[in-house]
Amino acid sequence: MTAPADPILGRRPAATDEPCPIVMLHGSGNSGAMWRRVADALPGCRTIAPDLIGYGAAPGWPPDPVFDVTDELDAIAGALPKRGAAFHLLGYSYGGAVALALALNAPRRVQSLTLIEPVFPNGLRYGNERAAYEEVCHLRDEFVAMTKRGHRTEAMRWFVDFWTGDGAFDALPDAARAATLKCADKIVLDFQAAYSNDPGAARVAALDMPVALICGDRSPEPMRRLVEALHRLMPGSSRTIVTGANHLLPFTHAPEVVAALTAQIGAR
Residue 11 falls within a domain, yes or no? Predict the structure, then answer.
């Protein structure tokens, strides 16, 4: 469940002559460092790329099993521009779901919103994409079940191969595979937060900042369906389909991400 607008996150931006910074939120199994190539291509912009709970240098997740997207918002609140200042917002994968929740909680502060294949399953429900919704539910259920049985290698193989193609997990270097296994328990919570993030179609449709939606033409079909559903739901949103890209497109197609983000900043 998404909480009502926070009194700090939702306050009116303070007047300033400085350009708005860009807040960048990463996906599951990554950290804020994933945005380095994108940030380096925006030399005139201040970028803020916090680590979400359990990733990078961020603290681990709380022991309380009731975990939702508001925990992520609380954790990154201190990294956001101070005194209610405005910012542009970019979110990828699970970070896209967190970014959408942040935009809903702080619509006056978010000057533009760019979402790259956000893991926002309820968007599929809003768009009546039943088959795609059931497919991502199956991904979640199998991953959680395998992880709870202690089969982390099998769970991560299931997870990575879904997003980036059969055999992708086994093709990773040994160190990278080992790193993914450490994320399995947090990814269970990421799924929990993503599915409990249910603000309702009307609130999503009411967002009035410029919104850009990006996906790869080789990404899993549920993600392509989701981006299409959100594009239908959000009036005035733009949609970019990156040729030759899959779910890893921020890593493999950073120039396209930079171009979409630059257009967003200019639109505002």
Answer: no
Whether residues 250 and 169 fall in one domain: no
In one-letter notation, the amino acid at residue 209 is M
Whether residues 42 and 74 fall in one domain: yes
Expressed in angstroms, the distance from the first to the final Cα of the chain is 30
The CATH number for 263's domain is 3.40.50.1820
Domain residues for the domain of 88 are 22-126+197-267
In a domain, 84, yes or no: yes
pLDDT at 67 > cutoff 50: yes
Q: To 5 degrees, how large is the angle CA 252–CA 258–CA 259?
A: 110
Distance (Å, whole) CA 51 – CA 175: 21
Domain-located, residue 150: yes
Q: What is the pTM of this model?
A: 0.91
Across 116-138, average pLDDT: 98
**Which of these, 190, 230, 191, lies nearest to 212 by C-alpha position?**
230
- Residue 267 confidence class, pLDDT cut points 50, 70, 90: low
Q: Of 43 and 138, which is predicted with more confidence?
A: 138
Q: Comparing C-alpha atoms, which of 222, 260, 267 is closest to residue 241?
A: 260
CA 167 to CA 174: how far, in whole Å?
A: 14
Q: How many C-beta atoms lie closer than 10 Å to residue 19's C-beta? A: 12
The single-letter code of the amino acid at 89 is L
59 versus 86: which is more confidently predicted?
A: 86
Instruction: Tell me the pLDDT tens digit for each residue of 210-237.
Output: 999 999 999 999 999 999 999 999 999 9
Residue 250 in any domain: the answer is yes
